[in-house]
Amino acid sequence: MPERPVADRPMIEITNVTRSYGAFKALDDANLVIREGEFFSLLGPSGCGKTTLLRMIAGFDNPTTGTIAVDGQAMEGIPANRRPTNMVFQSYAIFPHLNVEQNVAYGLKRLRLDSAEEKRRVEEALGQVSLNGLGKRGATELSGGQRQRVALARALVMRPKVLLLDEPLSALDKKLREQMQVELRRLQQAVGITFVLVTHDQYEALAMSDRIAVMFGGRIAQVASPKEIYQRPVNRQVADFLGGMNFVKAEIVEEQGASLVVDTLGFGRIKTDKPKAFVRNGSGATLGIRPERLRVLWDDSSAKFEVSGKVVERHYFGEITHLIVEIPGLEKPLSVTETNDFGADDIPVGSSIRLAYDPEALVALAD
Amino acid sequence: MTAAVADSPGVGSRRTRRDVLLQSEAVQGLGLISPTFLYAVVFLLAPIIVVIAHSFWTQHYLTIDRTFTLENYRIALTEPIYRDLLWRSLYISLTVSFLTVVFAYPIAYFISFHGGRHKGLWLFLITIPFWTSYLLRVMAWKVILGYNGVLNSGLMGLGIIDEPSTALLYNSSAVIITLTHAWAAFAILPIFVSLEKVDRTLVEAATDLGDGPLRSFLRVTLPLSIPGVIAALLIVMIPTVGDYVTPKLVGGKDGVMIANAIQVQFGKAANWPLGAALSVTTMVIVTLMALASVFIIRSAARMAR
């Protein structure tokens, strides 16, 4: 299935939004534009303000200052029941006294459709989430995955302009979660509705989103595509939150416009892109390299850029092996992730190895 | 384990019977419930059997004729006085339980949804009137509803009525008012508990799907709190049918209920079998009325969806 192009038209505009509880700022001056038809994720640890932001879009909470607009319409003073958004709750909030069909038709009742049209829309929504034929099932007789699908169908049947998802997969087991990630993405591509997902699971965000906003302590740290967030994190916090990252201390030799030339002890002199948020603080800087961007060099093979060191720990993970390698001059040993195709799981602890790297993979990070 | 049994087959087989008996879950279970079971038999089952037995016998001045007869039931069901008393009792208890639930629901709702951190305090305040004797509370209503009572002087002071009304006390309305007040807390608590169990996210979900506050209440909160409403209704309805003190104190001639008649049969009239037949009839009819109320409320709740 080809990727559905995202329209270059704003669907949600969040402008200078702050939400304070007394002196505590749950959200601090957030600015964000989410485009029409986009699968957008708000990613961050608990307490970072992502759920607060989602609930303000839904209308369950109001900004202390700032404005939220959906589809060009300011949302101020519009209660949750009259917003063009629908929500999939973390607990799913399936009405226990209604069956699947009645749950899905709940919001349609108010629209006073004729019964054939209502039935058709309910069937269509149940079909979209592969729950055909379960309409008469009672709400209490559903598995976790089915409850999640009912919650999705109940929101989708309203044909909202924006679908809000509050950690929808966190209650599912790992296998089902991964399956639902694929299905959710497929569903979003099929219906073309703007999805806003809140999650603390970086893999979930990376796997499903068109763009991700990474949030820490009530502030938006970076907004970019999954690939850019992973490969070019703006600061240490973002880099650390999304998967493993080796941090290497460096000395700035020269600043050339958008790039930096730095000296490191293990990797020598490197030229790298300067992150937007980079603020020079003396001559020190931090570089980061992902564990999988360091590759083990076998026997007599060689690479243009390599470092050598000693294996101090080895951890086996089935398809990959995790090596901890001490490099002379580096204060912390490097983490290296290597696939087991060539026998990385047989490298003895204590042996000397050489690692190849691409200088492009070393990114400068703001603190 | 298997080896040990094989080594000493004799010991094993000798001990088996008693061990099996002592270890069986059924025996252990019966042992555990036996004190409460005995209590229930002695204090609940036995008296009821005595009452039912008496209802089929006949009183001959001081002795009781133990030949089976349905005469007592014929009297209980056909004599106009008992029929009227029974109807009045049912009417009063039905009205009281309905009014109590109607007044209790908003209070329970307020405490549950808007009580915040003070829920415990609110519930505590509601129980305060129960620290005084029930008789004192009935007397208080006499003071309020009486000829020279608070209500009459208040209404006269406001110029709404010219002379004290006698319609306030010593009739069935006085019984209804007094009982409604007396049972309020017993209705508030079960409704409160069932409202506490309503997941607040469900109300948010209803709002998210387009319902305003009133519609989400009618479609989600109310149906989910129906078990509490039913419990409250039964808790109030069943004991009030047989209430004896309240009609005696504030009911006057028009407020007499079936329990007063039963008391007379066991006391002054000294006709235990008739009293027993009246009691059994009342029990059966209350049960039927309770079942009918539950059925009606459940169907109404289902229709509302």
Description:
The complex is a heterodimer of chains A (about 375) and B (about 300). With about 375 residues, chain A is an alpha+beta fold. Chain A has two domains: about 10-230, P-loop containing nucleotide triphosphate hydrolases (Rossmann fold, 3-Layer(aba) Sandwich), CATH 3.40.50.300; about 235-365, OB fold (Dihydrolipoamide Acetyltransferase, E2P). Chain A is built from eight helices and 20 strands. A six-stranded mixed sheet of chain A has the order 6-7-8-3-9-10, with helices on both faces. A five-stranded antiparallel sheet of chain A has the order 13-12-11-14-20, with no helix packed on it. In chain A, strands 15-19-16-17-18 form a five-stranded antiparallel sheet, with no helix packed on it. In chain A, strand 11 (about 245-255) and strand 12 form a beta hairpin. In chain A, helix 3 packs across helix 4. The model of chain A has no long low-confidence stretch (mean pLDDT about 90). With about 300 residues, chain B is an all-alpha fold. Chain B has two domains: about 1-45, no CATH class; about 70-305, MetI-like (MetI-like fold, Orthogonal Bundle), CATH 1.10.3720.10. Chain B has a two-stranded antiparallel ribbon. In chain B, helix 5 (about 80-115) packs across helix 10 (about 185-195). The chains are: A alpha+beta (about 375), B mainly alpha (about 300). At the A-B interface, strand 6 of A face helix 11 and helix 12 of B.
By oligomeric state, this entry counts as heterodimer
- Across the major sheet of chain A, the strand order is 6-7-8-3-9-10
Largest sheet of chain A: 6 strands, mixed
CATH topology of the largest domain in chain A: Rossmann fold
Percent range for β-strand residues of chain B = under 5%
The N- and C-terminal alpha carbons of chain A lie at a distance of 40 Å
Number of helices of chain B: 16
> Radius of gyration of chain A, rounded?
24 Å
Number of domains of chain B: 2
Integer average pLDDT of chain A: 90
So, the CATH homologous superfamily of the largest domain in chain B?
Answer: MetI-like
Compute the CA-based radius of gyration of chain B.
27 Å
CATH architecture of the largest domain in chain A: 3-Layer(aba) Sandwich
- Gap between N and C termini of chain B: 60 Å
Given helix and strand content, the structural type of chain B is mainly alpha
Based on CA inertia axes, which overall geometry of chain B fits?
globular
Number of strands of chain B: 2
